[in-house]
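Quick one, tokens below. Sequence please?
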């Protein structure tokens, strides 16, 4: 039994390639089932986002498992296997566990510490569970990874500071106004950066947003997509008299917002402060606007300084999280090793309890006059004797799980007690009762 992670991500393939190897939402379920039916695959979870497509699998062999996963991806997207090999990273064993923990906690994302990936991992796992492509190993490991990521986000500042220019633009507005949910915002431009700024404003609770663009149809399309307002660029002077926040990102060679424009509408302004955020290169907003009272003008360099400082904070938090990962890997390995012990302990307890039941049956035949109360007392005490006798052997069996020769020693343990344990790992479908396993390991 081997753990494998095959990843196509922002380090291994550019966006043009990643777009070609992403499973659509309506195909991810059938993809999980299709991979699950492939030779050597015992369990699998498929993650597919805009930045990565990854296959996590439990396989019976490393090399064949890796090949069949890569062949599956190649066939799914119309590539040769060799082409898929060139754009994939393959992690095995502890490295695969480490990779999953890093991905889930946002340490492997394009934007360090982003939290969206946690929800995407959770959804990928739930879909795989619903399609019965997970089992004993992944039902435990993915829950462990999700819990680890939640704890990492709660106990560090990994996701608290803006590390993208569009997000930093909105954060700067908050530094001036505090809460911005009741503010009016204006976005100049209708490209990707403008849309990201729009999404960050909406995410911060801003509802009164207007988009202007030199091509009116583009402003209209973006506005309708996100249910906000749009105006023609000719309305800009009137809009500046009423808004609180302006974020500009166009490809213009000339200033869009000029000193003269703001001076002319200054007397009409109803609000005290105006935040201008220029994320265009070359700049959209005339630099001398800084001289106007209660106008705060920030450009890309200002934003970059904030982003760089915040990135350092995230990197410090990421280092803290990385230091916790080895302990998580150890915990996972100890749990996996314990899987081999559970059936042995169960078999030992079942044999002991069968002996106790046979003894009670013999007592019933030889002492038919026992009252129900007397029988319960004898049964309780005989079970107590068994539990006391089993306590040390069970403790020794648990300690064998971490032994380098655990398999051989567990076989000897079974021979000594004349028991035969079932297979610890049941691939394909998990039928073992987790609660009873816990009870067995606690020998209570």
């Amino acid at each position: 039994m081997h753990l494998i992670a095959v990843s196509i991500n922002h380090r291994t393939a550019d966006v043009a390639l990643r777009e070609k190897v992403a499973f659509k939402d309506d195909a991810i379920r059938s993809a999980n089932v299709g991979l699950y039916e492939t030779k050597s695959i015992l369990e699998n979870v498929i993650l597919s986002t805009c930045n990565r497509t990854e296959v996590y699998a439990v396989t019976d062999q490393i090399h064949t498992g890796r090949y069949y996963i890569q062949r599956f991806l190649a066939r799914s997207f119309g590539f040769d296997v060799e082409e898929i090999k060139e754009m994939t990273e393959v992690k095995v064993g502890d490295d695969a566990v480490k990779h999953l923990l890093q991905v889930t906690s946002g340490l492997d994302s394009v934007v360090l510490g982003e939290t969206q990936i946690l929800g995407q991992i959770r959804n990928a796992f739930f879909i795989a569970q619903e399609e019965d492509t997970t089992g004993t190993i992944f039902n435990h490991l993915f829950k462990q990874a999700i819990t680890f990521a939640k704890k990492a986000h709660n106990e560090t500042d990994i996701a608290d500071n803006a590390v993208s220019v569009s997000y930093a633009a909105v954060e700067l507005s908050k530094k001036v106004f505090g809460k911005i949910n009741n503010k009016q915002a204006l976005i100049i431009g209708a490209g990707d950066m403008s849309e990201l700024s729009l999404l960050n404003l909406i995410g911060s609770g801003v509802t009164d947003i207007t988009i202007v663009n030199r091509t009116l149809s583009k402003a209209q399309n973006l506005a309708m997509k996100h249910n906000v307002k749009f105006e023609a660029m000719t309305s800009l002077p009137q809009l500046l008299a009423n808004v609180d926040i302006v974020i500009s990102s166009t490809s213009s060679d000339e200033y869009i917002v000029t000193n003269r424009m703001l001076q002319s509408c200054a007397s009409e302004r109803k609000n005290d402060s105006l935040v201008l955020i220029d994320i265009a290169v070359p700049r959209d907003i005339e630099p001398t606007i800084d001289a106007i009272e209660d106008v705060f003008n920030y450009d890309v360099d200002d934003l970059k300084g904030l982003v760089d400082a915040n990135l350092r904070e995230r990197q410090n938090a990421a280092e803290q999280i990385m230091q916790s990962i080895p302990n998580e890997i150890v915990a996972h390995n100890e749990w996996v090793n314990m899987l081999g012990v559970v059936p042995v302990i169960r078999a030992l307890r079942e044999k002991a309890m069968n002996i106790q039941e046979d003894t009670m049956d013999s007592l019933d035949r030889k002492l038919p006059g026992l009252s129900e109360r007397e029988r319960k007392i004898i049964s309780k005490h005989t079970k107590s004797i068994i539990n006391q006798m089993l306590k040390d052997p069970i403790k020794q069996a648990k300690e064998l799980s971490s032994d380098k020769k655990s398999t051989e020693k567990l076989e000897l343990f079974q021979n000594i007690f004349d028991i035969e344990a079932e297979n610890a790992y049941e691939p394909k479908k998990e039928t073992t009762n987790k609660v009873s396993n816990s009870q067995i390991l606690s020998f209570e």
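The radius of gyration is 31 Å. The longest strand covers residues 41-48.
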